[in-house]
Amino acid sequence: LEDVRRQAMYAVVHGGVDRELRVMSARYLASLPFDGFAIGGSVGKDTAEVASLLSYLVPLLPPDRPRHLLGVGDEKTVLASTREGVDTFDSTFPSKNARHGQLMTRTRGTFNVARAECARMHEPPCRECGCALCVNHTVSYLHHLVKANEPTAAMLMTAHNLHYMGWLMRDQREKILNDEI
Fold first, then answer.
1. Alpha-carbon gap, residue 181 to 172, rounded angstroms
2. Residue 109, SS3?
3. Run of H or E including 11
């Protein structure tokens, strides 16, 4: 729908994990002139269920318009959903992980900076990352902030985790453009 305020209008495909309801919702909404489609509600209890749902649902949506998965942001499910044709995501997962001391990195994977061994790690959290945390601070400093309940720790880790997710999606986009996905 063309919006006079120049905002994209998305339809939200619902139906839970019930295949018939999802198909009915997708077919009906795809017949309308929306700018894009969001997939919402319960999409499954794990990555395999999400991927299964998307494998039959995404092909029912117009291929020339964006597909957005609501509320999913863990790396494994984002990667599986991208392979199934989902274009964008939104989630509190990176900031929630940060508030619980979890740092998502390319070199170490996801790890908890509150662990005792992190107190002795005098190197950046991720050498391949250019965010403010990785350029200016060490894992041991971050460990200290977490142990001191310093709010700066959550702020730095949230910014880093969001930077990481941006990198992950750029990497996925590049793989799509190179026909690797």
1. 8
2. strand
3. strand 10-13
Alpha helices in 100-150 (DSSP H): 132-136, 139-147
Q: Which two tokens stand for residue 155?
A: 């702020």
Write out pLDDT tens, residues 119-172: 999 999 999 999 999 999 999 999 999 999 999 999 999 999 999 999 999 999
180 pLDDT band (50/70/90 cuts)? very high
Angle 148-154-155 from CA coordinates, rounded to 5°: 120
Q: Is 110 helix (H, G, I), strand (E, B) or coil?
A: strand
Residue pLDDT, tens place only, 89-128: 999 999 999 999 999 999 999 999 999 999 999 999 999 9
CA distance 29 to 23: 10
Q: Can you tell me the distance from the alpha carbon of 109 to that of 103, in angstroms, rounded to the nearest whole number?
A: 8
Q: What's the pTM value of the predicted model, to 2 decimals?
A: 0.87
For residue 75, give both structure tokens: 């790396």
Q: Which of 26, 65, 63, 64 is nearest to 43 (CA)?
A: 26
CA atoms within 13 A on the CB side of 154: 10
Query: How many angstroms separate the Cα of 107 from the Cα of each of 2, 71, 110, 125?
Result: 44, 26, 9, 8
The angle, 0 to 180 degrees and rounded to 10, between the axes of the packed helices 19-30 and 47-57 is 40
Q: What is the CA radius of gyration of the chain?
A: 19
